[in-house]
Amino acid sequence: MTSTLNPAGGASAPPAGLPPARRSSIRAAQTRRKWYEIIGLTTPAVIVYVMFVLVPMGFAVYYSLFRWRGVGPPTEYVGFDNYVLAFQDPIFLDALRNNAIIVVGSLIVQGPIALAVALLLNRRFRGRAVFRLLVFVPYVLAEVTVGIMWKLLLTGGGTVDALLKEIGLGGLVQAWLADLDVVIWTMLFVLTWKYVGFAIILLLAGLSNVPHELTEAAAIDGASWWQTQRHVTLPLLGPTIRIWMFLSMIGSLQVFDVIWVTSAPAVRSLGASATMATYMVDNGFFARLWGYGNAVAVILFVISFIAAVLFQRFLLRRDVEGAITGRTN
Amino acid sequence: MATNAVPSPSSARRPIAWGTPFTYALALAVAAVSIVPVVYVIVGGFRTTPQIIADPAGLPDPWVWDNYQRVLTQSDFWRQAFNSAVIALGTTAGVVVLGVCAAFVLARYTFRGREALYTFFTLGLLFPAGAAILPLYLMLRDLSLINSYYAVILPQVAFQLPLTIVILRPFLSAVPRELEDAAAIDGAGRLGFLWRIMLPLSRPALVTVGVLAFVASWNAFLLPLLVLGDVDLHTLPLGVQNFSSQYTSDTAGILAFTSLAMLPALLFFTLAEKQIVGGLQGAVKG
Fold first, then answer.
1. Residue A189, number of CB atoms within 10 A of its CB
2. Phi and psi (nearest 5°) for A67?
3. Over the stretch A250-292, which tens digit does the pLDDT of each residue have?
4. How far apart are CA A158 and CA A164, in angstroms?
5. Dihedrals φ, ψ of A76, to 5°?
6. How far is residue A317 from each of residues A323, A324, A325, B115, measured CA to CA in Å?
7. B76-238+262-283 has which fold?
């Protein structure tokens, strides 16, 4: 730490009692040093971030204008043909519909469940810590693990079918992963099981920020536990709920791993379980239609971006200052 | 119930009360839904495939160790675990070092363009990392980084930076100004202040972002799938997926392999769960 050698560095004011010219030169040196520190400390992060997050997206826009098999530089300029092709492909339209089902389904199924569980696990009772840990387990598991696990459980004549028959619900048995009309709902179930823990973690973190004084005051005023939750806790939890909705939406739009692993490639290629991301990787990477795949990437990005901006504009705006970003001095 | 839900200020010192039976019944049901499928996979690894086919929902009878032994001795499990560990540790180190440096500047320096820089980083949260995977692959190919640890580590660091900065900045901002002044009077520059006072004070937040980065990397699938074509570099998620599609009829073996692959992340998270929830509190301050 070189700066420790220089007592005038950092935040300390120039020593009093010096002539003004000397003082201002010290201040200039401090300003220069400050800028060196700012640049030195942020540059590595900025470079990595720009290079691996922003630059590739720029390239995607460029590549998407070509018909290109990925060998040599792209030469066959086709304008917006790739985009037109995508929106004419029924499989891609299926993928869009599936993403919509997952976005909406995740919000309306996970939200209430997560809220109920978080309120339950926010109560103080013995053994709470253990329950909290167990509830988070699915969220920590790798998507691949979860996918393979449910694939084995849901396979025809597998454990889920056997259990349903044992408890007399054999009539409910479906070809969970093979029936083209059922598979997307099976995917939604697996995704819900996997990600509801994340919603619970966030909500518990939000709940622990609700001041005790408020819930206490409500109780003194004669409010029941339910009334306290409904009228005191929930409104204060608003920002956390909206942040979760936002993250869930972005995650649902780019969902890949669970779908890729759990549903068979044939089912996916018929559109029954495809999402924009699996469609993009199938066509771009594995079928080597690089120009086309990049066009799908841009579509995925634009849809996510529009959704994010609309969400920010209408729901998150009030929260951005205090909630997601924290207070800054 | 009301007294239970609304603890008085002294309740922190009182022993925690037992909940009502209703509370436990609900909590148990929720926990069962989360954990039973996982337990099934682990226990299923102790059965044989014929046992599983004959009675999918049964218990091991007798218990066999053979599946776990096979995975631990014959398959590529250890090499894949090693690759996963190298990549996850590299990612974690990169994220924490770059994230702390950037978040420190954003939290403790006043300068023109500071908020713009912060917004620039938070844009990454809006950004679907998966969308850029194809051009990212092409870029890494042109840089001759394909089939190297860097091809996974560098992009993962970049993907994780926005969340890391969002979590760290409020923590670093919350350290009182007086401490900084005191450090300055004692002759420490801002960097000395970062190193000697900020880092020790913000250890909980550092653990949070570190664990999140580690688990995200340990579980990552799409990026390694595209950039690690070389089987010798495969990580555990790739290994599990390959094993399950290669030996489709060896259900018991798949269950054992899957169980072993998920253990490290589970252990890691169990140890750090409190820290993670604590760290997120800063980020979702209401």
1. 15
2. -90, 120
3. 999 999 999 999 999 999 999 999 999 999 999 999 999 999 9
4. 10
5. -90, 90
6. 10, 10, 12, 16
7. MetI-like fold (1.10.3720)
**Quick check: helix, strand or coil at residue A200?**
helix
Asked if the peptide bond before residue B62 counts as cis, ω within 30 degrees of 0, the response is yes
**Angle A198-A199-A203 from CA coordinates, rounded to 5°:** 120
The answer to whether A327 touches B173, Cβ cutoff 8 Å, is yes
Contact A224 B277 (CB under 8 A): no
Q: Which two tokens stand for residue B130?
A: 């998966």
Instruction: Give the Cα separation of A191 and A101 in Å (integer).
Output: 12
Asked if the Cβ–Cβ distance from B189 to A1 is below 8 Å, we say yes
CA separation (Å) from B235 to A152, B82, B227, B255? 21, 8, 11, 18
Residue ranges per structural domain of chain B? 76-238+262-283
**Tens digit of each residue's pLDDT (9 = 90 or more) over B187-231:** 777 788 888 888 888 888 888 889 889 988 999 999 999 999 999
Q: Do A133 and B17 touch (CB under 8 A)?
A: no
Inter-chain CB proximity A63 and B173 less than 8 Å: no
Partner residue opposite B23 with nearest CB, options A123, A166, A312: A123
pLDDT digits 0-9 by tens, A152-206: 899 888 888 888 888 888 778 888 898 899 999 999 999 999 999 989 988 988 8
Q: Which two tokens stand for residue A1?
A: 């730490």
Considering only alpha carbons, which residue of chain A is nearest residue B152?
A52
3-state SS, residue A76: strand
Residue B280 has its nearest CB partner, among A55, A202, A216, at A202
A250 by Cβ neighbours in 10 Å (0-12 / 13-18 / 19+) ranks as buried
3-state secondary structure of A61: helix
